[in-house]
């Protein structure tokens, strides 16, 4: 396996550190140490410094999460099935990481309004992408536009809240409960649509 280039190493290290510690607890020296990249390269790739690096790391992490969720939705017969699969995959990832991984967007989104308008907009855009994925799929399954929009917002909000709780409680149970309730809700809506 080839080693990622220096720029990618900075981005990956930054995303990991943000997930573990949040924006205000991570310095550029932490990123340099974690990435095992030359200090001088940091300002070559990110001449605007910390905010540029952190913003680009969150954008890259968000893109990966959107692709991951999109893949699960594409591979599933329904949104409720996709939610169950997503819950299992993310719950496993977080527990295997010692309750650290699984929430870099969540971790930074809490701080984003205090950091900068740019970081706030980036996090909001990532969440909008999650909501759009769920909304589009629910619409494709025949849900009316208002119900699909509200359901997509609820799904995203509930899952993100569960990601905070599983890390806090060091248990996948909050995510399992949320996933079970969301999937059950969607299954009931599907049954109601079929009856009509």
Describe the structure.
The chain has 196 residues and is an all-alpha fold. The chain has one domain: Tetracycline Repressor, domain 2 (Orthogonal Bundle). Helix content is 81%, strand content 0%. The chain contains 9 helices and no strands. The protein has helices at 6-21, 28-35, 39-45, 50-75, 79-96, 104-115, 117-140, 145-169, 173-195. α4 (50-75) packs parallel to α7, α5 runs parallel beside α8 (145-169) and α5 runs antiparallel to α9 (173-195). The longest helix is centred in the N-terminal third of the chain and has 26 residues, at 50-75. It is elongated, with a radius of gyration of 18 Å. It starts with 5 loop residues before the first helix and ends with a helix.
Blueprint (SSEs and pairs):
Blueprint: H1 6-21, H2 28-35, H3 39-45, H4 50-75, H5 79-96, H6 104-115, H7 117-140, H8 145-169, H9 173-195
Structure keywords:
mainly alpha
Number of helices: 9
Poorly predicted runs? none
Q: Give the domain tally.
A: 1
Mean pLDDT: 91
Euclidean distance between termini CA atoms: 54 Å
Anisotropy-based shape: elongated
CATH architecture: Orthogonal Bundle
* Biggest sheet layout: none
CATH superfamily: Tetracycline Repressor, domain 2
Counting helices, strands and paired strands, the structural category is: mainly alpha
């Amino acid at each position: 396996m080839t080693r990622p280039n220096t720029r990618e190493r900075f981005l990956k290290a930054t995303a990991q550190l943000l997930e573990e510690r949040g924006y205000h607890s991570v310095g550029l020296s932490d990123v340099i140490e974690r990435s095992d990249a030359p200090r001088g390269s940091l300002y070559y790739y990110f001449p605007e410094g910390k905010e540029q690096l952190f913003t680009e790391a969150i954008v890259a992490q968000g893109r990966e999460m959107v692709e991951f969720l999109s893949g699960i939705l594409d591979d599933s017969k329904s949104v409720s099935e996709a939610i169950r699969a997503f819950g299992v995959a993310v719950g496993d990832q977080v527990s295997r990481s010692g309750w650290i991984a699984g929430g870099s967007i969540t971790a930074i989104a809490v701080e984003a309004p205090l950091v900068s308008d740019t970081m706030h907009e980036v996090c909001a855009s990532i969440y909008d992408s999650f909501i759009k994925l769920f909304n589009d799929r629910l619409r494709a399954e025949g849900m009316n536009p208002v119900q699909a929009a509200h359901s997509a917002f609820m799904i995203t909000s509930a899952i993100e809240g569960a990601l905070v709780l599983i890390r806090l409680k060091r248990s996948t149970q909050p995510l399992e409960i949320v996933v079970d309730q969301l999937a059950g809700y969607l299954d009931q809506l599907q049954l109601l649509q079929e009856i009509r």
